[in-house]
Amino acid sequence: MNELQELLKNDVSKAVEKFVEIANSTVDTFTLSSLTNIGEEIAKKVDGHSKGRVLGTLGNIYYSLGRYEDAEKAYLDTLNLYLDLSKKDEKYMYYLAGVLFNLGNLYQVRRRYEDAEKAYRDAINVLEHVNAEKELAAVLVSLGILYAKVGHSTNAENVLKKAFEIKRKYVRSKDDLRELGMILNNIAAIYLEEGRNDEARILLERALEVFEKYGFIEEMASVLHNLSSLLDDEEGEKIIRRLEGIERGLSPDLRAKIKYSSAKIAERKGDFSKAANYYLDAACLAFIAYRNYGQGSVNFIHCFDKAKKLGMDEADAIKTAILRFYFGANVELESESRAGSLITRALSGEDIKLEGDTLLDE
User: Fold this and answer.
1) How far apart are CA 126 and CA 123, in angstroms?
2) What is the model's pTM?
């Protein structure tokens, strides 16, 4: 960071390159947070394409940090800059499409689905105008996922199939194969929703072969979870048990799905105490996925209710806290339970020290 500060004083063009390099090579939130102030200073000292690169990178940093309003402003500033540059030279239309794509992803996470669709459609139009077919696939995938999320399954299937046909022309690496496999997984998820189980299984098995061969753990877990729903109880349970062994390294959304499946298995077997714990875990993970990433595949309210119904009284306190303090619902937080008491005390400013790892540890 000191080197970047020195470059900012002595050679701003090199500072731009170093800023983009650091931002693109780190996921550490402290480093990213430190970069924002420097990036804002660099942006004031440059113009043209250099300014666009800095602003766009700032947007990406803000997005990663969950500072969505700042990300939107940075992306819109970048968009306006590249709109002007593209009028003078069409080579900047690639960057125009890129910032539209980023805006679409931002709007999708914030559940502004109409804005997201428009941004994706605008990006597609730009890429088609400059005959950038290779870059088109990623935008189509995001648009297909959006359509699936809002229940437009026919549009989702068509868009994802188009993305697959484009992507398969440009396979050069394992990562390209991974992206192809995930497109198949996404199409299969649509088929599962529509009850087209045989078609779904074919695609899932094709994707699974790739992921297992090249060791793509997150993607393999997603496919296995989808595949488990097509198997009989015994075989499906074997897959869920396998996923439980690796779930801690997975995304919150996928972990929520696995916990939810584990809860249903435990409930089916009559182990209601274990089922309640699984439902509570699923609820908390699903809420994190919803809050941080805009993902909503597992209904966390339903999971809290199931945990409560199966005897987990703490679940109701946590659900009520989320409804009241995140969604602004006019509900009262009961402080009689341990979780409710801890939440109430923490919100009043008291320094809470937990003896275990979570609110629910005894």
Assistant:
1) 5
2) 0.86
Residues 6+ apart with CB under 8 A from 289: 251, 252, 253, 256, 295, 296, 297, 298
Exposure of 329 by Cβ count < 10 A (0-12 exposed, 13-18 middle, 19+ buried)? exposed
Report the run of H or E that residue 24 belongs to, with start and end.
Answer: helix 12-25
| Distance of alpha carbon 159 from alpha carbon 148, whole angstroms | 10
Provide the residue type at 289 as one letter.
Answer: A
Question: Which residues have C-beta within 8 Å of that of residue 117, sequence separation ≥ 6?
Answer: 104, 143, 146
Structure token pair of residue 349: 């400013």
Torsion of CA 202, 205, 206, 209, to 10 degrees: -170
First to last CA, the chain: 44
Report the distance separating Cα 341 and Cα 326, nearest Å: 18
Rounded to whole angstroms, how far apart are CA atoms 217 and 182? 12
Cβ distance 41 to 8 under 8 Å?
yes
361 phi/psi in degrees, rounded to 5: -70, 140
3-state secondary structure (DSSP) of residue 86: helix
Please state, in angstroms and rounded to a whole number, the distance separating the CA atoms of residues 226 and 182. 12
Q: pLDDT tens, 269-321? A: 999 999 999 999 999 999 988 887 777 779 999 999 999 999 988 898 889 88
Q: Tally helices (H) and strands (E) across the chain.
A: 18, 0
